[in-house]
Amino acid sequence: MYRYDEFDHQLVAERVEQFRGQVERRVSGELSEDAFKPLRLMNGVYLQLHAYMLRVAIPYGTLSSRQLRKLAHIAREYDRGYGHFTTRQNIQYNWPALARIPDLLAELAEVEMHAIQTSGNCIRNVTSDQYAGAIADEIEDPRIISEIIRQWSTFHPEFSYLPRKFKIAVTGHAHDRAAIKLHDIGIVIVRNEAGEIGYEVHVGGGQGRTPFIAKKLSEFVPKGKLLAYLEAVMRVYNMLGRRDNSYKARIKILVHETGEEEMRKLVEAEFAQIDASKMLEVPQAEIDRITRYFEPPAFETLPAESAAFNKAQADDAGFAQWCRTNVVAHRQSGYSIVNISLKPIGGVPGDATDVQMEAIAELAEAYSFDELRVTHEQNLVLPHIRLDDLKAVYDRLVTHELATPNLGLISDAIACPGLDYCNLANARSIPLAQEISNRFADFDRQYDIGELKIKISGCINACGHHHVGHIGILGVDKKGTEFYQISLGGSADEHASLGDITGRAFTEDTIVDAIETLVETYVGLRHADERFIDTYRRVGLTPFKERLYAE
Amino acid sequence: MAQHSSKGARFQAVTANRLLDGEVVYLAADNSWTEVFSEAEIADGPEAGEALLARAVPDGFEKQVLEPYLFEAIEDENTGFRPVSVREIIRAKGPTVRLDLGKQARKQAQG
Amino acid sequence: MPNSKKLIIDGAESSDIWHFVDDETPLAEAPAIISLTRLHDEGAELVAAGKKLGVILRAGEKQGEDVHALKHFLDNLAVVAIEFPVYRNGRGYSTARILRGQMGFRGEIRAVGEVLFDQWHFMHRCGINAFEVDADVSLEAFNEAMGELSAAYQPAADPQRGILWRRHN
Fold this sequence. Notes:
B: globular, C: Rossmann fold
């Protein structure tokens, strides 16, 4: 993975000192809250319900064991012993004191981490495929261009006061695990007919109050010209994006109001200027330098079958089951990709204690070439585990309650922090995830139901990505009481779709029964091998709606 | 977004977050900021509410607290008053999914 | 310029030779910064009369004034003021960058409006070389702000090439 050079270190260190100065001026009263707020947001510091919240960037979801240990240490020393992994591959701390945050950031800088631009109206963390570099049939490791985009977008002087936040995602695989069509800019690495690598660029996706699937603005931006194209998109957005209404300020609204064709023309015109200047063509030597950091690790040459692994599966049904749900085939013979579920039955989705983080760091160091990943679904990944080592890894995970065999199943629900933590929320979301998890705790039942992605948001901002849940749940506030609205048929992958609202919202008391009804309806209607989402796409909303609201 | 009181709210209190650590605090009778809701001054009637909010924002208030606002309270036979909205109830106690964190945990510890 | 403000040009405190004149007020001898509309209406006359030209571009909420509209006056403009109505409205950064970069403007680009410490560095990188700041701002503070980030990853309108390029020089 990428390692900082002197330039990277220097910029991060200077940023820490800059923020330290800003905090001092705020505390002394020299800086008003109004002037300080965008500055603290650009350093990832939110004010939430109970305390400040700090969002630490995990670029394209990749971490080393050293970094994860530092995150554990910070949870212990600056927070309440845990952190929360988010739907954009970052980590959040819920209880840091403002006065201590500069020191916290200085500690992060020691391990090449920061909280730069994880909030505010600027370009946020570039996210990517959690299986990058490990999965078969990848066109190119998307983290290379993600790192280049990260550097280009960091402290970008022209794009730090945008109309609204800006999120970029990259995938290098035909199966999109990075939800690129739901991003302000979504990039797919592709090959053209001549076999050359380039980028499909989608613009104007997003969830929130007005969800949109991104429009494909360019079929093929040649390698070497992507930064120029991105700069063109950003400039058009910065110039034309609305600033009169923060609910209409994202680029998705600009694309919608301007029209796809006109938007394309505007971007192409700007792109032509920037491209002609050649100023954003990154030198090949630099591309090569960054690429080297993402070369495959020193894999051993191993047979595809592992006798040890086969025996362990035969001997331990629990292990075998976990392998079926949480372990994915690796492109390298004899290796596998391990998914660590942070959704224990009845637990808080996406949270990990300092002790758990340290255990995972140990496993990454010992078994996964010192690397782990954060997914978009509040889980973690050990990307390169030898089949021979799987049992040892599993046993260790079991000790720390990190081996729940539920990847992609109904109890692997995403929930935003919701009204338990968040200043923007209208309803609580975590307790709902817990109740659903408990109701469907029986694993046999879960396996029978199969893949079913439930996503829960506590308000219209959709941080729980409910629009793209197979079952999406939106918490709303009606006269001081929490209600839950259901949508069906959303999907975040290459077949991206926004869910259909079923109708009347449910109360806290009836929502879990409603989920049961939906599950039963699916089970009753499904054909062989159909997942929930497949059945829904075949039969549509009506049968589900009828059952849900039958008196 | 801060939830302000509903129209016609009778009893109100003022809350904010402490600048240095973000802790939820309430304006007390002596104009100090207390961490405990039961020590919050309760204003009776809209004019008293406005007056209470005005006391929360003297010159330099930003050096102590952020974004003070009024919220609705209601009489409660056990504790005197309690917040009306779910949001303010949660702010007064802590996350409902982690009873070991926030003000609710400190109350336990104090017995 | 109001008394509460002062001007820093190219890193030094400067007195202002320009007057901001609204659309209704007749122009006097002193060099005037006028609106884009007025520039369109009277620009040709003013050029013919040998006047120095100055214009202010408004950022707007729904749409900003288009910097490309200055194309025909570029050689005669001595100063372009760019409005930052609130510091959060960052349209002006792109305006400055286009003006200094693509359009090749060599005159004074001045930031007016809400122009605060924590924005000066980025403004400067975008080609702004004149800052209308609060009168109590010291040059020391200004230089401190300029120096807070010693390098940059990406090119902009200032001379530095960007770390992504510099690594291989």
